[in-house]
């Protein structure tokens, strides 16, 4: 059974992520999915001591395209995933996990997300504005 405090936290989080349309919700979900994949790619780049310029070269594409992938201006596709598998000699293993709102609250709290975005060089909170201008005003940058 949830405590009163947990209920209040969940209500607050649900209010923050309230959407005006399913399209807004879908856009944010797609952005988060891409963000999670690219966060893993960034970890592999760090392990292999590769730059994003190196990645662009290995993908046979421009540096600006790779930057646009990481900023969310361009969208990943399955060909990119296949290329990442080959470049890093790693298998991409997708899985479905619980989408409980309380799990999302912990995983994407403002402070953790801001720190992750800063490490990934994705600008905060502009990514929210691109996805859903309506919620950009609801999420305030966290102070570290």
Describe the structure.
- The protein contains 9 helices and no strands.
- With 144 residues, it is mainly alpha-helical.
- The protein has one domain (19-136).
- The longest helix is centred in the N-terminal third of the chain and has 26 residues, at 22-47.
- The two termini are 32 Å apart.
Q: Summarize this, please?
A:
It contains nine helices and no strands. By secondary structure, it is an all-alpha fold.
Overall pLDDT: 75
**Rg from C-alpha positions?**
17 Å
Total helical segments: 9
Strand content: under 5%
Structural class: mainly alpha
| Helix and strand pattern | HHHHHHHHH
Major sheet details: none
Question: What is the topological layout?
Answer:
Elements (H helix, E strand, L loop, with lengths): L3 H13 L5 H26 L4 H8 L3 H9 L6 H11 L12 H7 L2 H10 L6 H6 L1 H4 L8
Please describe the structure with a list of short key phrases separated by commas or semicolons:
about 140 residues, mainly alpha, 9 helices, about 0% strand, about 65% helix, single chain, elongated, disordered C terminus
């Amino acid at each position: 059974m949830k405590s009163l405090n947990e209920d209040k936290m969940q209500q607050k989080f649900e209010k923050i992520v309230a959407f005006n349309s399913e399209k807004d919700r879908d856009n944010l979900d797609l952005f988060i999915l891409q963000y999670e994949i690219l966060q893993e790619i960034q970890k592999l780049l760090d392990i292999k001591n590769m730059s994003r310029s190196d990645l662009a070269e290995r993908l046979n594409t421009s540096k600006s395209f790779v930057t646009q992938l990481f900023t969310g201006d361009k969208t990943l596709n399955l060909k990119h995933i296949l290329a990442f598998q080959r470049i890093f000699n790693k298998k991409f293993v997708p899985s479905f996990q619980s989408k409980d709102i309380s799990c999302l609250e912990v995983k994407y709290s403002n402070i953790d997300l801001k720190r992750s975005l800063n490490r990934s060089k994705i600008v905060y909170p502009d990514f929210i504005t691109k996805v859903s201008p309506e919620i950009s005003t609801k999420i305030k940058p966290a102070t570290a």
